[in-house]
Each structure stands twice: as C-alpha cells, then as structure tokens.
Amino acid sequence: MATYNGEKYIHCQIASILKQLASDDELIISDDGSSDGTLSIIEGFCDSRISSICNVGAPGLLFNIENALRLAQGKYVFLADQDDVWLPGRIAEMTSALHEFDVVVSDAIVTDQYLTVTHPSLFQLLGSGSGIIKNLIKNTYVGCCMAFRKTVLEAALPFPQDTPMHDWWIGMIGELNFSICFLRRPLLYYRRHDANLSCTVFGSKYAIKQKFVWRYVMSKNLIRRQLEF
User: Fold this and answer.
1) What is the pTM assigned to this prediction?
2) What is the mean pLDDT of residues 34-43?
3) How far apart are CA 130 and CA 114, in angstroms?
C-alpha cells in the first residue's frame, strides 16, 4: 500500500485487510511524506504484521508503490489503495486463483466517499479483460484490484522512470509473459472521491496527445524489458 495524506479513510481500509491476513502475512505501507494523521493511524494498530516505511525514491505515486513492492517477501503480492475497503474472502478467493494463474484481477463495487454504491461492477464500466492490444489501447488493469505472484513482480521491477502507471505496466508485463485471470466477482469497495490519487474511471482528464505519448512510452519500455529477459 502506498499512502499520502489518507487519514480520512485509511483506518477502515487497513482494518478490512488485517481481518484477512494470516499471522505470517505482511502489510507493507510506504508513505510519501504525509502531513496529516496518516502515520499516527497506522501506528495505532500496533500490529506486528504492518511494516510502515517512508518513500526513499522520487516523490509521487509510482515510486512510492515501487518502494513498498521492493520489500515484499511473500509468494503472492496484493496491491491496495489507502481508501478502499476489502470485502470478506478477498484474499482467500484470489489466492486460490493464484494457484493456477500468475496475475489475478478481481471486479470491484464502485462507491462514493460514503461507500454508497454508485455502480455494481468496475469491470462493466471499464470493459475489463485480458489482451495485449486491448489493454494497450485502453488500460483495464486497476492496481487495487490486482494480485500476482512474486515472479511477476520480479519481472516488472524496476519500474521504468517514464512509465505512466504502475498497474498498467505490471498488467502488460503479465500479458506478455504470464497467465492472466479476471475474476468476475467483486471483492472490494472501490471508493471514489475528490482526493483520489489515481485516475477516475469515468473518463480521462488527459489530452489525446498525452494518451498517444503514453502508449508510445509503454510500447518502447515493454520492448526494452522483453529484450532483457
């Protein structure tokens, strides 16, 4: 989990995750210099399964997430946003799928800031599914919905410094080299509010030119990474 000034929602999210963790699991949280009560809330859990660290890389979401992922020790890695809520059984169901697939993406219930449902399926909104060309044209890999094997993480790190989105990059690495599964059952509440760090699902704020640049950069970086394998 990457955090930044998330005091408003983070307690609810961490609590929903800890309920599902085994005693030997870990929740790695990298904070990007929060100036609110985020760190105090994290410390208040007093749970040995939580490892809270400061981002030592470049500021921003991409490298804050990479900072956390570099410390992941488990066979399976789950991404988590600071403001969502995991539904009961999420870890168990996705772990079961990870026994067969390398990358697993679950559906999510879209809500407003109060967890009032605004749409029953994020997949339906995005047209989610696997496919290299499909996801190069329109990314449907949403980080908070993703889990993957450690081997996928090792192939994805380090993130190219100019890559636009960590989840898109990991998803495309998965498309090229690993097996993918999109689970049609929603396994979290995907909370949308004015302070979201990630892009909205209801339309991009970026210009057409920027979108073309990102796709060029993604293609270039994928080719380079493949040549390194």
Assistant:
1) 0.93
2) 97
3) 31
